[in-house]
Design goal:
- With 233 residues, this protein is of the alpha/beta class.
- It has one domain: Metallo-dependent phosphatases (Purple Acid Phosphatase, chain A, domain 2).
- 30% of the residues lie in helices and 19% in strands.
- It is built from eight helices and ten strands.
- A five-stranded mixed sheet has the order 3-2-1-9-10. A five-stranded mixed sheet has the order 4-5-6-8-7, with no helix packed on it.
- The longest helix is centred in the first third of the chain and has 13 residues.
- It starts with a strand and ends in a 6-residue tail after the last helix.
Length: 233
């Protein structure tokens, strides 16, 4: 089976359209989403609509939760709070209901989906190092666990030395961010898993950053949320 795994779209419609177009070119059988469909960007309704139409399954992200429940927005940055408040005002009831019904975890052999981490998915802690990853392997039973949240792609094997997909080694894989990469590369990022060949690839591609940035500015959101897209930070 060929599976595309998207994460951290953050209301970036142009990047999401690009990622889904690539998933069709890759002849994906399934497309999964790791959450943070909304937040930061200027097209939340368009992104939720497209996720609902195109994705087989999605889990909840912390920015999705901040839009559902204002109390959770207090953990976000100033710009993140502003975007969450604006998104809450304009999101349709139907799309809010969709976000409200997303789970924290999803498991279907051979993979587990979590936005931030599998052990305590409602705590939104980051996995950014081998030491962060070590205790997380007890939080899932499948061979693979896919995460987002940090917006930085990586692979970590359970032995803490394997940094690529390898038969017999359980892995945590961060697919990066479709809509707001933070690894210094402004290209959209997502994961592509072939379970038959047992291969994994981090897909990177250009998209219309100018249009995504204009949408942020047009809607009165903080300008930094637009400028960072050009730098991948």
């Amino acid at each position: 089976m060929r599976i595309c795994i998207l994460s951290d779209i953050h209301s970036n419609y142009e990047a999401l359209v690009g990622a889904l177009s690539l998933s069709r070119q890759l002849r994906a059988d399934m497309v999964y989403c790791l959450g943070d469909i909304v937040g930061y960007g200027g097209n939340p309704n368009e992104c939720v609509n497209l996720i609902r139409e195109s994705v087989s399954y999605s889990v909840l992200g912390n920015h999705d939760l901040a839009v559902i429940d204002a109390l959770h927005a207090r953990h976000l940055s100033r710009d993140g709070k502003a975007a969450a408040e604006w998104t809450r005002r304009i999101l349709t009831r139907e799309n809010l209901t969709y976000l409200e019904n997303l789970p924290y975890l999803y498991e279907s052999e051979p993979l587990t989906l979590a936005h931030s981490n599998p052990s305590s998915p409602d705590k939104w802690t980051y996995i950014t190092s081998l030491e962060d990853a070590r205790p997380q392997f007890s939080g899932f039973k499948t061979p693979l666990c896919f995460i987002g949240h940090s917006h930085v792609p990586f692979i970590c094997g359970e032995d803490l030395t394997t940094l690529f997909l390898k038969n017999g080694i359980r892995c945590i894989i961060n697919v990066g961010s479709v809509g707001q990469p933070r690894d210094g590369n402004p290209q959209l990022s997502f994961g592509f898993l072939d379970t038959d060949a047992w291969t994994y690839e981090n897909i990177r591609a250009d998209y219309d950053v100018n249009s995504a940035a204009r949408s942020i500015i047009k809607n009165g959101l903080p300008r930094y949320l637009a400028s960072r897209l050009f730098r991948g930070v």
